[in-house]
Amino acid sequence: MRSPLALLVALCCAGCYSPWRAEPEGAKVCGVEVCDGYDNDCDGAADEDFDLDTDDRNCGACGALCRPEVPHGTATCEAGVCIIERCEPGFESADGEVANGCEAVCAPSAGPGETCDGRDNDCDGTTDEGVEWDAPIAPGIGVCAGLPQVCEGTAGWGPPRLQYVPTYEPNEATCDGLDNDCDGKVDEPHPVGDACEAGVGGCRREGVMACGPSGGDVRCTVEAGPPGDGDATCDFVDDDCDGLVDEDPPCNGTACSGSAIPEGFVCIPPGTFMMGAPESEEGFFVEEGPQHEVTLTRPVLMSATELTQQEWVDVLGFNPSFRQRHPLSPVERVSWTDALFYANARSLQEGLGPCYRLEECEGEPGTGCEGDDAFESTNCGGFECAVVEWSRGCTGYRLPTEAEWEYAARAGTTTRFWCGDDERCLRDVAWFADNGDGEPQIVGRLPPNPWGLHDMPGNVTELVFDDYQLYRPEPRTDPLASGLWRGREARSTRDCAAEFVAEPCRSASRGARHPQQRTYLTGIRLVRGFSTTEEPR
Questions:
Q1: Is the dihedral of CA 392, 394, 399, 403 positive or negative?
Q2: Residues 399 and 465 sit within 8 Å (Cβ to Cβ)
Q3: pLDDT tens for residues 259-292?
Q4: How far apart are CA 175 and CA 189, in angstroms?
Q5: Is-above-0.85 flag for pTM?
Q6: Distance between CA 356 and CA 369 in Å, rounded?
Q7: Is residue 179 exposed (0-12), middle (13-18) or buried (19+ Cβ within 10 Å)?
Q8: Rounded to whole angstroms, how far apart are CA atoms 392 and 455?
Q9: Which string of DSSP letters, residue by residue, matches 147-209?
Q10: Mean pLDDT for the stretch of residues 72-97
Q11: How many CB atoms lie within 10 A of CB 190?
Q12: What is the gyration radius of the CA atoms in the chain, in angstroms?
């Protein structure tokens, strides 16, 4: 134990010895620093000349000699930790892991030098040294072209180290004409070269998508054309380039001068309306609510009358109707699947694209459900398809959606019937129990609604495409209860028939039919999309 005086002297001197440790035997004067935990050279620091991170003789601490603890391994000090770096020449690891020993005698490979396989092919104690990629260069365009592959040991050759390429992007984000993410494609998130258009109607111009000046965006190479003199004709063209079509006057269902509306059809314009009935409406039924806002974004062409028996015969060659008193009476006793088959057949006959994909079908359209009615047998129709899909972009004939039907039936009105709230107004515009003699009448003999649609309501109930579901309260856009049908769900019907009382003739009234049900009370009214020359752009 040192005396207090000795401690004081040691602290005040050059610091050759630590006052808290025993003086090394024989060390009385300052000398060369030794890795022993003492300040041998009296400079106030101990062991300062020794790198314990990489010194194999003092790895992590003085005297901690780095030596292999596995057979035939060569050790080295890295970050103060002794690790097995490689095998001694003439030995190799049988499992490719030198850390657990180099237990196998190295047998040189037949070929010269090293290959990329994780083995010491030349038995010099080093693995995969100096190998070079001798196959074709890595695929790529621009910044990635010609990058070398990387040797990954037993895994063989791996992809280039793309993260070290100066302009490499993990996900292509720059519109610069280069393959920045090295996947062999250029600017693929950006629709460069795709067709594009600007403006609508008469102002529409076609171009292609191209990178902008900054290289960070993509834009169409054209702008909308110059405006015309006005938009006063109903021609489905935005003549004044304001983004609106035929707004002065609006295309409201009448075939005005210059229009492209086919004979027998009226234009139903886009718009927003309240679908369903409020609970306060006389005759309200719970499945007519809740009343909710619906927006239809595209115009359609709707037949001014219900489909006639003659129109059906002209396409399919037979008449499925129960009452065949006149060829201009509405066709009836057709099922929902019968109606889809007819719509496709008529589309093909007139050179239009069919709207429905009908698959796994059995039977013949217009068969089954014999007798004067089919209410007692709801699935007696002889034609059935297991899969039905509607292509919403088609221009051929189809059934309206339930929203399209009610929107057209109301024709801008909000009353119980389009003619008013008093049911007595129906006697002049609809065939129902008061004047219909209990059977369908020749179509188009009564005045149309404000958009030019006859027998809406009255004469026969009309099938729509949707399955019969409860309404939701939130606003909806272009709603459709079901676009892909795989089952036997009931389908919605709208309108009232010649033997119905007034209440079901309300614009919000709705019913349902099994898709194979055929009844003399039910017919159809067709709609179709616009062709390229007719459609507002």
A1: positive
A2: yes
A3: 457 788 888 888 899 999 999 999 999 999 999 9
A4: 9
A5: no
A6: 24
A7: buried
A8: 26
A9: PPPEE-GGG-EE---GGGSTT--SS----SSS-TT-SS-SSTTTTTT-EEEESSGGG-EEEEE
A10: 82
A11: 21
A12: 43
